[in-house]
Design brief:
Helices cover 38% and strands 21% of the residues. It has twelve helices and 15 strands. The protein has helices at residues 5-21, 27-34, 38-50, 115-130, 169-177, 186-197, 253-257, 259-267, 279-284, 292-312, 327-341, 361-373; strands at residues 54-60, 68-73, 79-85, 89-96, 101-108, 137-144, 147-149, 154-157, 165-167, 181-185, 206-211, 215-221, 224-225, 317-319, 352-354. It has a five-stranded mixed sheet with strand order 5-4-3-6-10. Helix 10 (292-312) packs across helix 11.
């Protein structure tokens, strides 16, 4: 076993990830997954068992060779908190060391909420989650809207909370909880939720479509989140709209394709019309709609997603947010329209599916952040 403590911690953390994901179920498969010798893996496994992070029990008899003992994570080794928020609410989820959900908390935020109020609400949410388990809190993942500097742990800017600018989120939360805190843009956190809890488990290339209060995407390529040189990869909602407009247009893509804007267009009401109390229910009522409003919305989505597919060549687009209530028909209509508008997409494998995860996807993704970043002390 190498003696470099940083290498040891990273390898121990990677070993737990492989076992938790189910990709490694024995010492032999773990050695293959990590690309290190079976004898070295044996030392790491023994250490993780001794520290009560892994179990090794039972026999798994394959078609050939000697039976293998089965490796699993210990659910009671600790827990992870995942918190995601927007300008209206905070959602938090606690998961045990094996990734099973322990509890969830939702808090409605006051109108014109401030950054300080958000920080206090995050701390309160984690405190409420802690009441559901006696095991130790290991780390906290945060899914933060807008631009974030994940490495620095700073929320750079979020348009819907006026004073949310250069907020040192990791420092403020970590100093109170005394555990590691991992920060990421909330859509990128959702991409990790798909990897652990949704349809992205076996995928290495996919894009999260996030038409929620704004419009953004999160891209995963070769299993890695794409952040961009300025932390702004996927901020498609800021594209000028329509794309064919001349200079000086004040309209942006999110004005036309966010979830509220899409409901108003499908319902045939004005740009400032009051939204239904439950936007998801309001969209579900429009899922079978036909006519020019439906066709216009699908065509706009088709142009945007078609262009993105020609650029990114992803395996699948996973739709998140309230628009999932429009069902598979919405995704199929967008796909068909895109193929008609852009014949080149016929060979590009365009595929759009609604997520099977619900409103708690952001919190699940934040918990996934914490799980993926965890290493033993």
């Amino acid at each position: 076993m190498r003696k470099n403590p940083i290498f040891q911690r990273e390898t121990l953390g990677a070993a737990v990830l492989q076992v938790r994901s189910g990709r490694a179920t024995s010492r032999t498969t773990l050695a293959k997954a990590l690309g290190i010798s079976p004898s070295t893996v044996g030392l790491y496994v023994d250490q993780l068992i001794a520290e009560r992070f892994l179990n090794e029990s039972g026999l798994n008899q394959g078609p050939m060779g000697r039976p293998r003992r089965i490796l699993t994570t210990r659910p009671d080794a600790g827990w992870f908190a995942g918190v995601e928020f927007n300008a209206q609410r905070i959602q938090a989820i606690g998961v045990d060391f094996s990734g099973a959900v322990l509890a969830s908390v939702v808090q409605v935020l006051p109108a014109e909420v401030t950054a300080d109020q958000v920080i206090k609400a995050i701390l309160l949410s984690v405190s409420k989650l802690a009441a559901s388990t006696r095991s130790p809190l290991l780390s906290v993942g945060l899914g933060v809207p807008g631009l974030v500097d994940a490495k620095a742990g700073v929320g750079l800017h979020y348009a819907f909370i006026p004073d949310w600018n250069d907020v040192p989120v990791v420092e403020r939360i970590g100093s109170r909880l005394n555990v590691p805190v991992i920060l990421q843009n909330n859509l990128r956190a959702i991409a990790l939720a798909e990897r652990w809890f949704g349809g992205g488990h076996e995928l290495s290339n996919y894009v999260i479509l996030g038409p929620r209060s704004g419009f953004g995407v999160a891209m995963v390529q070769d299993g890695k989140l794409i952040e961009g040189a300025h932390h702004a990869a996927g901020e498609m909602g800021r594209w000028p709209w329509p794309l064919a407009d001349g200079k000086g247009s004040s309209q942006e893509l999110h004005h036309a394709l966010s979830a509220p804007a899409t409901w108003r267009r499908l319902a045939g009401v004005g740009l400032r019309a009051k939204l239904p109390e439950d936007l998801r229910e309001g969209l579900a009522e429009l899922a079978s709609k036909q006519g020019p409003e439906w066709d216009s919305v699908c065509e706009d989505f088709a142009r945007v997603i078609g262009c993105l597919q020609l650029l990114a060549d992803t395996g699948v687009f996973i739709l998140h947010g309230p628009l999932t209530m429009l069902g598979t028909r919405f995704c199929e209509s967008i796909t068909q329209t895109a193929l008609e508008l852009m014949p080149a997409l016929g060979a590009a494998g365009l595929r759009i599916v609604p997520s099977t995860l619900g409103d708690d996807a952001g919190a699940l993704g934040a918990a996934s952040l914490a799980m993926e970043a965890w290493m033993p002390a």
